[in-house]
Design goal:
By secondary structure, this protein is α/β, with parallel strands linked by helices. The chain is about 35% helix and about 15% strand. Strands 1, 5, 6, 7, 8, 9, 13, 14 and 17 form a nine-stranded mixed β-sheet that branches. A two-stranded antiparallel ribbon has the order 2-11. A hairpin with a 4-residue loop joins strand 3 and strand 4. The N terminus is likely disordered.
């Protein structure tokens, strides 16, 4: 925004910055100042400046369907008939050499049937028939592996590329490297349960050592999309514009007087400006009433099991078609963490997510958006092929499954493999850094060139790893 001569010199002289904030709090509520100053949105400033990719991208945006807790690959995406045939038998000795399982038992086969879907004939579990109906658009990676069995470290790894905290997430890197195609919406948006934070809280969408303007911005999927976005009492456009102009002028003067605070103040000013612009765009982007009844039914809106997650998936589609670069969707809590009653709990998780996920893929495809929107599904690790506490599965990093669709990905394939019992990733092994390199590549970015100087060291998402782009997955 630009400054204006509308603010009188007398008013500027009479009001200190403290006076201005105290006397015009109601007006600034419309600019999200209360929230920006005191909540995590304060570090989620506008990153809307559009920047050029390194080469022509296949994807303009990413939707990350993050399955918190770690879905069981043997029950969903990686059929293991040998494991089922040996159900209840003692686990092989090589299992005990690599993992410490609390209250572990014998081999635990899947009670769910698998069948081939689509022209490609890739096998999916009966638990996810809606997702399976999109088989020809999906590339399943059955050979993922991670470096830690604890949730926090595994979350840091899958989101930031390392098993240490304090680093930027992949969404922050994408925002930093490319910006947003919409000046009125953030480049990086987070859709989660409105009432609670996921495990590890806001670090799941942190900007880490990148400037704070690249952090993810939480949009609510029910009620007011962004708290304090609209003023509590109506004010005219002219009055609001005068207040913004006055604030801009005073901030500019303060920035010149205190150069050491300039970077932080620049980021805060960008927050205010984005908040003002979001008044015009955020409400419309999240207004699901504009969608047809057919579309709402497709996502499962109005149905007890699917309404919440369906809304988030539908909002994600509306955001990416408006130029948001990276949308991260979280499930309620840590629902996939099936330490007990694995079969029952996994079934309930699928009842919440399967229909909305498939609806997102089908809706994107019908609108011609799937070609340039990359959809990524998966958790921080998988589950063990042995039982825990009788009917549960423990965390498992040695081999698990994820999938990609759209955005230049060649669907209708299953890439890599775990061993016959689902324990080790043994064929075309994919480390987390390979996945990150591939996502950045589809966005037109060379992962080795997306760097940021931290105390003289060029940091990057794939960091110390010799990551490779998964070219067999590319169309």
């Amino acid at each position: 925004m630009t400054s204006s001569s509308s603010a009188s010199p007398e008013l500027l002289a009479a009001l200190s910055r403290r006076d201005l904030f105290s006397r015009t709090a109601a007006g600034f509520a419309g600019m999200a100042v209360g929230s920006l100053l005191n909540q995590d949105f304060a570090r989620a400033e506008s990153s809307s400046t559009l920047r050029e990719p390194h080469f022509p991208p296949q994807a303009k945006a990413v939707i990350q369907l993050f399955q918190h807790g770690g879905p069981s690959h043997m029950d969903l995406l990686d059929p293991k008939p040998e494991l089922t045939a040996r159900n209840g038998q003692p686990m092989p000795k090589y299992f005990t050499d690599l993992v410490k399982i609390s209250a572990h038992g014998n081999l635990l086969g899947s009670p769910f049937k698998f069948q081939k879907y689509g022209q490609s004939g890739v096998e999916y579990s009966e638990l996810i028939p809606h997702t399976a109906s999109c088989a020809d658009d999906i590339a399943v990676i059955r050979s993922m592996y991670s470096e830690h069995n604890n949730h926090e470290q595994a979350l840091w790894h899958i989101h930031t590329g390392r098993i240490v905290s304090g680093r930027p997430t992949i969404g922050a890197w994408a925002s930093y490297a490319l910006g947003s195609e919409n000046q009125n919406l953030p480049a990086y948006v987070v859709l989660r349960n409105d009432s609670s934070l996921p495990t590890d809280g806001t670090r799941n969408w942190s900007s880490g050592f990148l400037p704070p303007k690249y952090q993810g911005v939480h949009f609510r999927h029910s009620g007011t999309p962004v708290l304090y976005l609209q003023p509590s009492t109506p004010i005219t456009d002219k009055t609001q514009q005068l207040r913004r102009d006055l604030l801009y002028k005073m901030n500019s003067e303060h920035r010149e007087q205190v150069p050491r605070l300039a970077p932080e103040l620049e980021a805060r000013i960008a927050s205010y400006e984005l908040a003002g612009r979001m008044q015009l765009s955020a409400g419309a982007a999240l207004n699901l009433a504009e969608e047809t009844q057919e579309t709402q039914a497709l996502y499962g809106l109005g149905q007890p099991n699917t309404d919440s997650y369906g809304k988030r998936c539908l909002i994600a589609r509306r955001l990416v078609e408006r130029g948001v670069r990276y949308v991260q969707i979280f499930v309620e809590g840590q629902i996939w963490d099936t330490h007990s009653k694995n079969a029952d709990t996994t079934k309930k998780c699928c009842e919440q997510t399967d229909k909305p996920v498939a609806a997102l893929l089908k809706d994107l495809k019908q609108r011609g958006l799937l070609n340039n929107v990359l959809v990524m599904w998966g958790g921080e690790f998988g589950r063990t092929p042995v039982s825990q506490s009788g009917d549960g599965r423990d965390h498992h990093k040695q081999g698990f499954s994820m999938w990609l669709a759209g955005g230049g990905i060649k669907g209708g394939q299953a890439y890599g493999a775990t061993d016959e019992l689902g324990y080790h990733a043994v064929e075309n092994r994919v480390m987390v850094a390979d996945l990150h390199a591939t996502v950045l590549h589809q966005l037109g970015l060379d992962h080795k060139r997306v760097t940021y100087d931290v105390h003289g060291r060029e940091e990057r998402l794939t960091d110390v790893y010799d990551a490779k782009v998964l070219r067999p997955l590319l169309a």
